[in-house]
Amino acid sequence: MKRNLLYILLAGVLTQTACQKDFLDKSPSDGYSNESLWTTEAAAVAALSGCYKNWETSSSILYMDAISDNSYSQWPWDNYQHLGNGTATATDPQVANQWDYVTIQRCNWFIENVDKATIADNLKNRFKAEARFLRAYRYFILTQLYGDVPLSVKNLSVQEANTISRTPRAEVRKFITDELAAIALILPDKYSGSDLGRITKGAALALRARVALFDKNYAAAIEDCKKVMALGYGLYPNYTDLFRQDFENNKEVILDVQYKANEKDNSNGDLGILPSSGYGGWASLSPTQSLVDAFEMANGKTIDDPTSGYSEDNPYVNRDPRLAANVVYPGLQYSGKFYDPITSGSGDYYSEGNNSPTGYLVRKFVPFLSDFPDMWNTGVNIIVIRYAEVLLTYAEAQIESGVMDNSVYQALDDIRTRAGMPAVDRTVYNNIASLRTLIRRERRVELALEGLRWYDIQRWQIGPTVRTGTVYGTRLGTVDANTGKVTLTGNHVVAEQRNFNPQRDYLWPVPQKERDINKSLGQNPGY
């Protein structure tokens, strides 16, 4: 927190934001001071753009599943291994990177100064509401990861930043939900043209519903979900296309980080980490066998049901279509060839080069590499909140409130049938306990690899069950290069061993470098 943000802000406010692709003409940044910055509407827009800059990133979303049982981060320099296997310390780089107050301070600065601008009050209030959302979102992330964190709603001097203490998590969460309720009354339902990607009423209400669900305030979550449902969002018909750049800004997207290819500081340069070396990528994130096993059979039965038709020797046949939409598995036709990480000597063999150590690749976000000429320079937006999550939040909040009416089943049916799965079998899922199991599985497979799984593990307190022991990948064998036929003859490959301390690992440590500066911060238990 040792930052004098004015200089950062004046350098950054004119940087094009990831949430707006076209801007009004603006003067050179060296022509601005804190006094002259607010003289025109264009300058105020540019200042707000600085608040949007890096409020969330594609890399943060992608890598968050690596600290869950969904994915494994193989490269030590990405700094997520320790967070995933239970050996994190207060000096780990990602622990320090996520303790980030830059967006919060930018928003504080904007909110304190924008009233100086000679622009219409309704526009000024909307601008402030957008900044208040971005600030609330960052506090949501901070409280999820670290628990108690300093809460500041004004610009801090260096001396203040170096002595501020941590605010109880419950108090910060109340601030978040109060802010989101207030700004939802101000923000518009939708935008058009160059304003696409700005914060909407739906984003405020959907984030508020997420926070309420995570905090077990089920009545509030249900209320906010109903408000979002009334705004006209819906499920996009094609699950795979939902995440492709040609279909961005569709009716399911409530909040996303927007990118544009070939635009300096605004292209998505992270997707190349997903394919393996045979496709020109790095295979930095590898789905686990645990995630693959979570997908049901196409008939709606789980793979451990002896009547499901599942075969350990033919495990990828007749599965939930979302498996192939999320994961590249052995024998799947991907980018012009049958993917083969299991045949010794194959270019994508699991233990060689920039290949997946689990034998599985992330397909979501990059289902067709032909979508872009350069996968390191794309315009793929990364979704932060979408309508399917709202339906899942609604269903979970209802059953945790003891309600299992038709609206709960309908929310699940809508999600499942969109993906090509059968509706919920009411004779099997006919009580609260079984519905809870189903909803938790649906959240995992529907939202797989979108950065939310860790938060579910955290709030359900299931870390010792799902994040302890061996991380497995596919079984070895062969893939016929001409037909894609998979023959499995070996054991499952092993990616790593994990440990989980429930007295410690549900929260990250406060970064040591912050505690070296500010002795008032304290530390989370176990670190």
Automatic annotation (TrEMBL):
Principal cellular location given in the protein's record: membrane
Keywords: Cell outer membrane, Membrane, Signal
The keyword Membrane appears for this protein: yes
UniProt xrefs under InterPro entries: SusD-like_N (IPR033985), SusD_RagB_dom (IPR012944), TPR-like_helical_dom_sf (IPR011990)
Location of the SusD-like N-terminal domain: 22-213
Limits of the RagB/SusD domain: 251-527
Compartments (UniProt record): Cell outer membrane
Keyword check for Signal: yes
Pfam assignment, any one: SusD-like_3
SUPFAM superfamilies assigned: TPR-like (SSF48452)
An annotated GO cellular component: cell outer membrane
Membership in a protein family: Belongs to the SusD family.
Protein name (database record): RagB/SusD family nutrient uptake outer membrane protein
